[in-house]
């Protein structure tokens, strides 16, 4: 497990009557040498502002400001182990050289709370584009923990939706990562991490891992949510019963569950088995993403079997899991 992983996180809300703004307090205990999340967000916002400037007026930009697809930080505080009370708290837990950090963020809403499908699609696309623009920036920024709980949105003053990618605790840059540094280090949330990250040791994080995580996130949302709510178990898709196999610490078992989903050619045939709100996404989004992912992994298998793995483009799984391919799917 990566040392910078947050060991404990608590959130509580507050409302400022004067500004009519909700706040969330986040608390974490990272190691002293862990990059400050606020610094990460500031750097990422700078990168995305440059992207916004480049896209201004182009058909690709669509008037979006991707720098706004980040959480807004209003204040932060750090307490190190020189504080006696903090040191006394840490020692029984054997946390080592850590600091206590507090962050005051704006209150965001999860994309799963959206009851309008077009708004959900807008938020999902925003986050997808942000992942790409950060990955191809000169800093090579990867989030490394795409999961259901950090896909958020805010509603703008004009009533439109802006997708927001939250929780940048374990984000990395190409400058901070290398194969040697990354040996035996794994980040992500088990049900949503790429198949390749279940290897031991895991590879260095790349852009397509984030896209694969988005596929798994979308899959589980479509199984269990509708009209902005988590459905009771009896109203979810029957495949939801396999959640315990995905949400475990058994890497081999989780990997087998994911490869099983990729190979399942019938699960998306009958969209009526899915909760009502997301049925329009089953064939054009989920089914095509599954097919694209399966073709990519099959292509790599064929390359390995024929001795052509050295020539194979593993970054995009032979071009199948490229930004352009995924963008075409999500345009529908």
Give an overview of the whole structure.
The model is unreliable at 1-13 and 178-184 (pLDDT under 50). Strand 1 (10-16) and strand 2 (21-28) form a beta hairpin. The protein folds into 2 domains: 1-10 and 19-107, no CATH class; 109-331, Transferase(Phosphotransferase) domain 1 (Transferase(Phosphotransferase), domain 1). The chain has 9 helices and 9 strands. The chain has a 4-stranded antiparallel sheet with strand order 1-2-4-3, with no helix packed on it. Strands 5-6-7 form a 3-stranded antiparallel sheet. A two-stranded antiparallel sheet has the order 8-9. The protein has helices at residues 37-55, 84-90, 117-135, 179-182, 207-224, 243-246, 251-263, 279-305, 323-331; strands at 10-16, 21-28, 73-79, 100-106, 109-110, 151-155, 161-165, 225-226, 229-230. 36% of the residues lie in helices and 14% in strands. It is an alpha+beta fold and 332 residues long. InterPro entries: Kinase-like_dom_sf, Pkinase_fungal, Prot_kinase_dom. Residues 1-312 form the Protein kinase domain. One of its GO terms (molecular function) is ATP binding. Keywords: Kinase, Transferase.
Give a brief description.
By secondary structure, this protein is an alpha+beta fold. It contains nine helices and nine strands.
Layout of secondary structure:
Elements: E1 10-16, E2 21-28, H1 37-55, E3 73-79, H2 84-90, E4 100-106, E5 109-110, H3 117-135, E6 151-155, E7 161-165, H4 179-182, H5 207-224, E8 225-226, E9 229-230, H6 243-246, H7 251-263, H8 279-305, H9 323-331
Antiparallel strand pairs: 1-2, 2-4, 3-4, 5-6, 6-7, 8-9
Helix pairs in contact: 3-5, 3-9, 5-8, 8-9
Organism: Pyrrhoderma noxium
InterPro entries: Kinase-like_dom_sf, Pkinase_fungal, Prot_kinase_dom
GO molecular function, one term: protein kinase activity
């Amino acid at each position: 497990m990566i040392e910078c992983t947050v060991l404990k996180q608590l959130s509580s809300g507050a409302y400022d009557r004067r500004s009519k703004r909700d706040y969330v307090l986040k608390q974490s205990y990272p190691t002293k040498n862990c990059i400050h999340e606020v610094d990460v967000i500031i750097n990422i916002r700078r990168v995305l502002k440059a992207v916004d400037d480049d896209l201004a007026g182009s058909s690709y930009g669509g008037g979006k400001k991707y720098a706004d697809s980040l959480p807004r930080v209003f204040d932060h505080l750090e307490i190190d182990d020189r504080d006696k009370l903090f040191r006394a708290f840490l020692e029984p837990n054997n946390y080592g050289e850590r600091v206590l950090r507090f962050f005051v963020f704006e209150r965001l809403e999860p994309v799963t709370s959206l009851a309008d499908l077009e708004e959900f699609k807008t938020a999902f696309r925003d986050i997808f584009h942000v992942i790409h623009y950060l990955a191809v920036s000169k800093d090579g920024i990867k989030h490394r923990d795409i999961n259901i709980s950090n896909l958020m949105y805010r509603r703008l003053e004009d009533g439109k939706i802006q997708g927001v990618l939250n929780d940048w605790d374990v984000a990395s840059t190409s400058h901070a990562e290398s194969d040697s540094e990354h040996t035996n280090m794994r980040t992500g949330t088990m049900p949503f991490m790429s198949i390749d990250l279940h290897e031991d040791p895991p590879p260095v994080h790349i852009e397509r891992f984030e896209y694969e995580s988005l596929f798994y996130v979308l899959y589980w949302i479509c199984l269990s949510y509708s009209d902005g709510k988590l459905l009771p178990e009896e109203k979810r898709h029957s495949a939801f019963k396999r959640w315990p196999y995905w949400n475990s610490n058994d890497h081999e078992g989780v990997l087998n569950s994911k490869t099983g989903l990729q190979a399942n050619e019938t699960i998306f045939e009958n969209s009526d088995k899915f909760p009502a709100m997301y049925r329009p996404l089953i064939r054009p989004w989920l089914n095509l993403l599954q097919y694209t992912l399966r073709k990519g992994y099959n292509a790599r298998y064929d390359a390995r079997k024929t001795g052509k793995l050295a020539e194979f483009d593993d970054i995009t799984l032979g071009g199948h899991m490229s930004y352009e391919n995924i963008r075409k799917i999500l345009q529908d």
